[in-house]
């Protein structure tokens, strides 16, 4: 079977999920061509697992100071190039198209009547799951951004819908946790503002990761460039993480048993809904704006939740090899039966 796999590159979560799927697809001896869009070519990193890949500009949302800038989003969208990319992408030699919310792939497949399956958290929003901040415009964009034939939605809980657990690594959980070590990943926020809010909490060590590294004048705030290996190392033994409300990083943090505080991207329905789901499930805390009082209270919490997820990627690859039979609730339930929710005390 020859597969074309399009992956949204705006956030690192889609790429992280793609790496896991790529390893399972390779282990199953399936031939895959990968395409990425949503960020400049030179901003991708740690892409070796994809064995060379195609790139298109695609579509992305422009953010500034923690919220979507709709005018800049329209200005940078370059619709003519987007439509040309759709027309020029030839999928005729492929047996299957997989889409992780990548619009060029999705629309090219639809134009060429290619069978397409979507594997992403965004496809969970086609079902009855917790929602916040939704409006007709957001719903329309979510439904039409990257349309597919078969939607496989991923989430932290099934909510009695035909959803699957996150596609995520099964990590090594270290025995020793540094109780005052906190990871901060808020790439859509003003980094100077983030540092000024964290500055008073001198009994904690904050490791701040961002696309643009800034100098820190605070001994307890350490600024780092984006690095898959470095980030994973720090995440493994930290006590908690402060981040935007993206899906994949929260999934990794839950799998590791980290306490989580999310600040959803303003006017972004998916992130607002993720924050609501985390809080509803009791898996994390949420702050609608950068709030020092909420951060201080959260920093002193000594309890977290570990959610152990199965190897969803392996189930999906086997499902593909089996001919992609219709997904029924019993198959989903069998996978969810492997999920364990365990309270964790932070020493």
Give a concise summary.
The chain is α/β, with parallel strands linked by helices and 347 residues long. It contains twelve helices and 16 strands.
Account of the 3D structure:
With 347 residues, the chain is α/β, with parallel strands linked by helices. The chain has 2 domains: 2-167 and 310-345, Rossmann fold, CATH 3.40.50.2000; 178-308, Glycogen Phosphorylase B (Rossmann fold), CATH 3.40.50. The chain has helices at 12-27, 70-76, 79-88, 103-111, 136-144, 191-198, 228-237, 247-256, 269-281, 292-299, 312-321, 329-336; strands spanning 2-8, 31-37, 54-55, 63-64, 67-68, 96-100, 116-120, 150-153, 178-185, 205-209, 221-224, 238-243, 259-262, 285-286, 303-308, 340-345. Strands 3-2-1-6-7-8 form a 6-stranded parallel β-sheet, sandwiched between helices. Strand 1 (2-8), helix 1 and strand 2 (31-37) form a beta-alpha-beta unit. The radius of gyration is 20 Å and the shape is globular. This is Glycosyltransferase. InterPro entries: MJ1255-like. It holds the Pfam family Glyco_trans_1_3.
């Amino acid at each position: 079977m020859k597969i074309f796999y399009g992956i949204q590159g705006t956030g690192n979560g889609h790429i992280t999920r793609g790496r896991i799927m790529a390893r399972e697809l390779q282990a199953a001896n399936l031939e895959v061509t990968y395409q990425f869009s949503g960020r400049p070519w030179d901003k991708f990193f740690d892409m070796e697992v994809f064995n060379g890949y195609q790139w298109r500009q695609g579509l992305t949302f422009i953010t500034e100071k923690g919220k979507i800038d709709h005018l800049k989003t329209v200005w940078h969208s370059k619709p003519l190039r987007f439509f040309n990319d759709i027309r020029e992408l030839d999928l005729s030699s492929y047996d299957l198209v997989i889409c992780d919310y990548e619009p060029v792939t999705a629309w090219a497949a639809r134009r060429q009547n290619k069978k397409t399956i979507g594997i992403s958290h965004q496809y969970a929003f086609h079902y009855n799951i917790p929602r916040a901040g939704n409006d007709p415009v957001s719903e329309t964009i979510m439904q039409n951004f990257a349309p597919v034939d078969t939607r496989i939605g991923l989430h932290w809980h099934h909510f009695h819908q035909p959803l699957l657990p996150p596609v995520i690594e099964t990590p090594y959980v270290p025995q020793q946790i540094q109780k005052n070590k906190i990871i901060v990943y808020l790439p859509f926020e003003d980094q100077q503002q983030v540092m000024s809010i964290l500055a008073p909490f001198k009994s904690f060590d904050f490791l701040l990761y961002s696309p643009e590294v800034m100098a820190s004048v605070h001994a307890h705030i350490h600024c780092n460039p984006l690095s898959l290996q470095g980030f994973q190392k720090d995440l493994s033994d930290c006590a908690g993480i402060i981040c935007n409300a993206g899906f994949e990083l929260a999934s990794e943090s839950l799998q590791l048993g980290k306490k989580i505080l999310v600040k959803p991207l303003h006017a972004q329905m998916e992130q607002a809904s993720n924050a609501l789901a985390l809080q509803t499930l009791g898996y994390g805390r949420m702050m609608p704006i950068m709030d020092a009082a909420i951060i201080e209270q959260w920093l002193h919490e000594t309890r977290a939740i570990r959610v152990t997820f199965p190897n969803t990627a392996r189930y999906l690859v086997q499902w593909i090899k089996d001919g992609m039979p219709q997904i029924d609730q019993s198959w989903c339930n069998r996978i969810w039966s492997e999920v364990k929710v365990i309270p964790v005390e932070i020493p």
